[in-house]
């Protein structure tokens, strides 16, 4: 097992990742966040809602673990099992919502993640790593942003570069 971060280090890194995320959103600007076709027909707003939906699931999962509950309810209908159908549900649930609400939810769910992780003791955080199957990898703030970095950040940055060149 690798050297694990302390809770303080983990939360510091997590906040640093959120600051970088917010900086990217600021650079994009709210005026551009509802334009379609950033990635696969999705807008920046759609990507924010997508990431928030999955983060909300993580928060619920961590809260259940923290409260010694055997299971948790995902934020989507329980019969949805496949990522594609869950992503479609998140898209439909958010596509007509105002941008301000989607951005507010993103920030709120991030704060819930921080608050939930902060409620764990150092030992409980190590148990959480084991339960999540992360014993062999270093868990850091970037762990919680890995999907964004791998799947969405390249598209968002390429789209932003295109918008800047056109503008």
Automatic annotation (TrEMBL):
<protein>
    <recommendedName>
        <fullName>ClbS/DfsB family four-helix bundle protein</fullName>
    </recommendedName>
</protein>
<dbReference type="InterPro" id="IPR012550">
    <property type="entry name" value="DUF1706"/>
</dbReference>
<dbReference type="Pfam" id="PF08020">
    <property type="entry name" value="DUF1706"/>
</dbReference>
<dbReference type="InterPro" id="IPR034660">
    <property type="entry name" value="DinB/YfiT-like"/>
</dbReference>
């Amino acid at each position: 097992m690798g050297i694990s971060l302390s809770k303080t280090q983990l939360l510091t890194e997590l906040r640093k990742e959120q600051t970088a995320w917010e900086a990217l959103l600021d650079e994009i600007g709210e005026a551009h966040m509802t334009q379609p076709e950033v990635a696969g027909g999705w807008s920046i707003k759609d990507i924010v809602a997508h990431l928030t939906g999955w983060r909300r699931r993580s928060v619920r999962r961590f809260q259940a673990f923290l409260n010694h509950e055997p299971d948790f309810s995902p934020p989507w209908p329980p019969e949805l099992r496949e990522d594609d159908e869950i992503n479609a549900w998140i898209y439909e649930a958010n596509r007509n919502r105002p941008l301000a609400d989607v951005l507010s939810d993103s920030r709120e769910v991030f704060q819930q993640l921080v608050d939930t992780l902060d409620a764990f003791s150092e030992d409980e955080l190590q148990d959480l790593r084991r339960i999540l199957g992360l014993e062999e990898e270093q868990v850091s703030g970037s762990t919680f942003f890995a999907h964004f970095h791998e799947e969405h950040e390249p598209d968002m940055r390429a789209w932003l570069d295109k918008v800047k060149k056109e503008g």
